């Protein structure tokens, strides 16, 4: 493998300097936050009331199972009623967030299919591959009826914006004006993190039936995609194990050694290797829809961490996406803190470097990849929890978590759903901005061969390891990277190459993903320690 040129217009240090300049005004604004035990009466994005009736029984369950009022927002402190569309409780037999209730994937799917039958705002698709253990994975799409009817057209628009080689700027602006933002929420890649599959069912129902302007704006300007459970094999094993423990108190319980077939937590380290079905399904789905945002839902730290990373950042990311991480995260911290919800923060937790995380399906392909970490109890019990270092107040934790808390599954659902809907609403209301950024990032990726280099990577046709070479080239193609083959011998400054040599040209939309896989990586550990 020989690159034509090694010239670079930037390195990781340039990215970090730009990040610091972009972050400075946001930091000073957030540093003024303070803890409040009571929710403000006038949040900046109010949920205007409507004449729509409330599901009283379900609403009572929400409030009863939330351990403190400040873990509720006006977005999720009730559930709208519908005489046509079933709530999760009507299909499952219990409201989302009920203690000691976790839902198998087959029952999740049963609910979504009932939702699809009852609402023209919902469509369900089956993922390209079944899991290693033969289980189905589905994709749920929710939007306004008119958007659902024109779903193929909106996919066509995002596909054209994803490859600017066939679009001029004027046409791109027309497509952006017509198009819709696509926001993809993906649940439970990590099986012991049990809350997101529950929350997503309730959120899908809310998006389908609620008639407040806040939700109507989402349906009008955005298409919401939901992967209810990404690690389908591990989810069902986790529910089995949880139910066994509840039925056998005091007995020594087995551990959840594997979540999939010979894989556990590192199923979220497969975005470059694409060895797992879940990774390939995510990649194929991305290349089908080209979503604006892919939002991965995790559970580990209190109470809600929204990702930006601390740096150093991956040197091959467009700086635009680094700023988009900050923009979205600070919007969520701001809005949740205004509502008096403690413990919503950003910046820490990971460095923003490694391209092997699943959400690099988006970040490596000119979209926005992001994730949450919420407080999870590893099941559906309500527990007394002690919080560690995250209780410290700092600029990125303006209203830090409480030192001790009684934490419930319903609290987890409330925070995930409130913040996620605030983010989706923000993207929906700024859909031209985010679609334009998507087009610009794609355009800059094509221009990268000339503005930054290298021009191409060459894989000699007479390589002594043809099987290894073929594996790598096929992996690049799986990532959406274009691979060409020379029909004649050619010569460059780097040497002579025979007929049949493979060429990865860098004037293509996913040139940055090729660089992440093929180039020398630059990680400034000294700067990280500072």
Describe the protein in words.
By secondary structure, this protein is an alpha/beta fold. The chain folds into two domains: 2-14 and 446-529, no CATH class; 54-248 and 257-445, Zn peptidases (Aminopeptidase, 3-Layer(aba) Sandwich), CATH 3.40.630.10. It has helices spanning 12-30, 56-65, 88-92, 105-118, 145-149, 151-162, 169-178, 195-209, 213-221, 232-247, 277-289, 319-338, 360-363, 409-429, 431-451, 466-478, 511-518, 525-529, and strands at residues 2-3, 122-126, 138-142, 181-187, 222-227, 293-299, 304-306, 344-345, 368-374, 383-386, 404-407, 456-459, 484-485, 490-492, 495-497, 502-505. The strands form four sheets. It has an eight-stranded mixed beta sheet. β14 (490-492) and β15 form a beta hairpin. α1 packs parallel to α12. The protein is globular, with a radius of gyration of 23 Å. The two termini are 36 Å apart.
Low-confidence stretches: 1-44
Radius of gyration: 23 Å
User: In the CATH scheme, what's the topology name of the largest domain?
Assistant: Aminopeptidase
Would you identify the CATH architecture of the largest domain? 3-Layer(aba) Sandwich
Overall pLDDT metric: 91
Class derived from helix and strand content: alpha/beta
Please indicate the percent range of residues in DSSP E strands (runs of 2 or more): 5-15%
What's the helix count? 18
Number of domains: 2
Query: Quaternary status of these chains?
Result: single chain
Biggest sheet character: 8 strands, mixed
* CATH classification class of the largest domain: Alpha Beta
């Amino acid at each position: 493998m020989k690159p034509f040129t090694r010239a670079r217009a930037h390195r990781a240090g340039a990215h970090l300097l730009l990040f610091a300049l972009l972050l400075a005004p946001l930091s000073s604004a957030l540093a003024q936050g303070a803890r409040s035990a009571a929710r403000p009466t006038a949040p900046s994005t109010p949920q205007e009331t409507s004449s729509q009736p409330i599901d009283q029984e379900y609403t009572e369950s929400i409030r009863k199972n939330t351990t403190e009022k400040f873990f509720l927002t006006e977005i999720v402190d009730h559930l709208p009623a519908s005489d046509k569309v079933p709530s999760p409780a009507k299909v499952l037999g219990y409201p989302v967030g009920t203690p000691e209730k976790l839902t198998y994937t087959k029952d999740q799917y049963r609910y979504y299919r009932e939702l699809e039958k009852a609402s023209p705002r919902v469509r369900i698709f089956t993922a390209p591959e079944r899991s290693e253990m033969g289980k189905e994975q589905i994709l749920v799409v929710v939007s306004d009826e008119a958007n659902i009817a024109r779903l193929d057209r909106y996919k066509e628009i995002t596909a054209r914006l994803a490859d600017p080689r066939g679009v001029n700027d004027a046409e791109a602006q027309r497509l952006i004006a017509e198009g819709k933002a696509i926001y993809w929420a993906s649940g439970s890649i990590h099986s012991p993190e049990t809350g997101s599959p529950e929350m997503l069912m309730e959120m899908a129902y809310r998006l389908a039936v609620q008639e407040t302007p806040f939700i109507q704006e989402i349906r009008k300007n955005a298409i919401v995609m939901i992967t209810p459970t990404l690690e389908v094999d591990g989810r069902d094993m986790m529910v089995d194990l949880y139910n066994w423990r509840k039925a056998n108190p005091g007995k020594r319980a087995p551990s959840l050694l594997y979540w999939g077939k010979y894989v556990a937590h590192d199923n979220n380290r497969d975005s470059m290797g694409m060895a797992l079905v879940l990774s390939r399904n995510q990649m194929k789905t991305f290349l089908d829809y080209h979503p604006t945002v892919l939002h991965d839902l995790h559970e580990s730290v209190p109470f809600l961490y929204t990702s930006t990373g601390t740096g150093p950042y991956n040197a091959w990311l467009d700086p635009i996406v680094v700023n988009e991480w900050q923009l979205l995260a600070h919007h969520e911290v701001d809005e949740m803190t205004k509502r008096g919800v403690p413990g919503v923060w950003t910046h820490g937790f990971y460095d923003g470097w490694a391209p092997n995380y699943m959400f690099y399906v988006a970040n490596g392909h000119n979209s926005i990849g992001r994730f949450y970490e919420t407080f999870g109890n590893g099941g559906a019990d309500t527990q007394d929890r002690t919080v560690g270092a995250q209780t410290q107040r700092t600029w990125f934790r303006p209203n830090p978590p409480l030192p001790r808390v009684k934490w419930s599954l319903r609290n987890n659902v409330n925070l995930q759903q409130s913040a996620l809907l605030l983010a989706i609403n923000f993207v929906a209301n700024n859909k031209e901005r985010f679609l334009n950024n998507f087009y610009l990032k794609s355009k800059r990726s094509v221009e990268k061969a000339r503005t930054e280099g290298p021009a191409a990577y060459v894989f000699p046709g007479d390589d002594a390891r043809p099987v290894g070479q073929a594996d790598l080239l096929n992996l690049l193609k799986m990532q959406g990277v274009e691979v060409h083959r020379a029909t004649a011998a050619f010569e460059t400054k780097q040497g002579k190459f025979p007929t049949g040599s493979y060429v990865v040209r860098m004037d293509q939309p996913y040139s940055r993903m090729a660089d992440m896989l093929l180039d020398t990586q630059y990680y400034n550990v000294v700067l990280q320690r500072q």
